[in-house]
Amino acid sequence: MDFATLAAQLNAGTILPEGIVITTLMIVIVGDLIVGRTASSRWTPYVSIAGLLAAVVALYYQWDSSDPIAFLGSFNGDSLSVLFRGIIALSAVITILMSVSYIDQSGTSLAEFLSILLTATIGGMFLSGADELVMIFVSLETLSISSYLLTGYTKRDPRSNEASLKYLLIGASSSAIFLYGLSLLYGLSGGKTTLSSIAAQIADTGSTQSLGLVIALVFAIAGISFKIAAVPFHQWTPDVYEGAPTPVVAFLSVGSKAAGFALAIRLLVTAFPLLTEEWHLVMNALAILSLILGNVVALAQTSMKRLLAYSSIGQAGFVMIGLVIDSDAGYASLLFYLISYLFMNLGAFTGVILFSLRTGTDQISEYAGLYQKDPLLTLCLSLCLLSLGGIPPLVGFFGKIYLFWAGWQAGAYGLVLLGLVTSVISIYYYIRVVKMMVVKEPQEMSDSVKNYPAISWELPGMRSLQFSLVLTVIVTSLAGILSNPLFTLANNAVTQTPILQATLTTSSRPVSASVAKVPLLQSDSDLRS
Questions:
Q1: What is the pLDDT along the chain (529 residues), one digit of tens a residue?
Q2: Which among 513, 8, 524 has a CA at the least distance from the CA of 276?
Q3: What span, in angstroms and rounded, lies between the C-alpha atoms of 390 and 145?
Q4: How far is CA 174 from CA 168, 236, 478, in A?
Q5: How many structural domains is the chain composed of?
Q6: Among 7, 227, 200, 66, CA closest to 136
Q7: Which residues pair with residue 226 across a beta bridge?
Q8: What is the pTM of this model?
Q9: What is the rounded CA–CA span in Å between residue 202 and residue 209?
Q10: In terms of DSSP H, where are the helices of 189-303?
Q11: 196 vs 216: CA distance, rounded Å
């Protein structure tokens, strides 16, 4: 094989966005070593954000690439992976904006935090396009190990140490189970590692109904469910969300979850096309459990971070509706909801960070009467929470109604009705927080709000926090009204992804009786009609 042929098969330009993030990571590390901790904290956040935004621009130019396969089939830079990689990069950008002041007040090194966060971002981006077993596992572990380090980053906080240890132990068990499932796939396929080759070899050898393949599917779903915090693999979520630094929790709730869903789509659709009914059944059960437990248990929470933890579990159940439907409209609705979730959830976490920095608490009862001292924070946090609950005309409403519309058209009536009921439940606990902030009389004001410090945006890192809050709220508010571009983006990502179109149109693929092919939604005007 000559050099030209090898270069063509490597197609290294496909990972240009990841290369930009890696270069940014090296600049942050080396720059911090050269100029020192105090000086580097002034410029490393802006370099990191610039690098991530440059990666997003590079992803834009890779949209609908004619040659997306890279590294001998290990990486697929198709439109689906481009969109997921963009979501992960943008979640890292907003996380950095909300981290500057938080990390500064914790007394730890900002450059080291950014280095680990960029490493986790790289792992998530590679995982979104990984199309080969070794690539999948290395990317997953890069993301996971970085997440463990971020969770325990505030070393002087016992809660952070405890959360990191729990996350590490449960995550290591999950990775071992997932790896065993991948090893079974490798063995059953006769030594193949590329997902499409595995599916073809298993079909040729007639091993589609073997016990080993079913066990591989169960173990793979267990590993994926841990990453997306689906019940019953959610045990780590409440403790990690409560103990970890809040910016880390924000990234895990969006970036890590998006990478998990990218892995779920690529692995289940490509490697298990002949076990469609089986993984439909399992994912349907996980979606039901996540919707019920996440939203019901959130009603009893007194900590804002734990409330958002169980909310995240419930939100995973909503997103899984699109995966269970397994149709063009289902995947498009899943993507649209993840884009919406990126801004409304990170906006809510930005509000929680700002309140905790000013009061030192995250108890829901301490938010009582906040509107009298901080109207901007009250408005922004209320809008983000209401959007998470699905109140129109915010973007969360259109995200949920698109999921429910696709599910109803596909015949998943029970799942859609359960989603509607649990959505109403979620509105209750979100509005409970809004009521606490807005309705309380001056004499009912909490002690934290009574001692609320004078609002100043001139402190180090507060400007970036303010920008993050305003940006997420603007997008959350306007994206619901002007949702056509996001609908089009999600639809195009599905229609331009060959692996989805091939598996959705093949006549040999068994389709669950409860799932029918449904047309893509072209605009929100179609939805309203």
A1: 667 777 777 888 889 999 999 999 999 999 999 988 778 888 999 999 999 999 999 999 998 888 888 888 899 998 999 999 999 999 999 999 999 888 888 878 899 999 999 999 999 999 999 999 999 999 999 999 999 999 998 888 888 899 999 999 999 999 999 999 999 999 988 888 899 899 888 888 766 668 888 999 999 999 999 999 998 888 889 999 988 999 999 999 999 999 999 999 999 999 888 888 889 999 999 999 999 999 999 999 989 999 999 999 999 999 999 999 878 888 999 999 999 999 999 999 999 999 998 888 889 999 988 988 889 999 999 999 999 999 988 999 999 999 999 999 988 899 999 999 999 999 999 999 999 998 877 777 888 888 888 887 777 667 888 889 999 999 999 888 888 888 889 999 999 888 887 766 653 333 333 333 344 444 444 544 4
A2: 513
A3: 34
A4: 10, 11, 39
A5: 1
A6: 227
A7: none
A8: 0.92
A9: 10
A10: 195-205, 211-228, 236-243, 246-251, 257-271, 276-297
A11: 16
Helices 211-228/304-325 angle, 10° precision: 140
Pairing of strands 75-76, 69-70: antiparallel
Give the chain's length: 529
CA-wise closest residue to 45 among 121, 117, 149, 144? 117
Residue 158 maps to a domain: no
Residues 6+ apart with CB under 8 A from 244: 150, 151, 152, 153, 160, 163, 164, 167, 252
Q: What is the DSSP letter of 254?
A: I
CB 307 within 8 A of CB 301: yes
Rounded to whole angstroms, the Cα distance separating 430 from 447 reads 22
225: in domain: no
Where do we find the tokens 């080759």?
197
DSSP state of 454: P
Q: Is residue 306 part of a domain?
A: yes
Domain that holds residue 395: 274-497
β-strand partners of 303: 363
Name the residue type at position 116.
I
Looking at the domain assignment, is residue 476 inside a domain? yes
**Nearest in space to 288 (alpha carbons), one of 97, 419, 447, 424:** 419
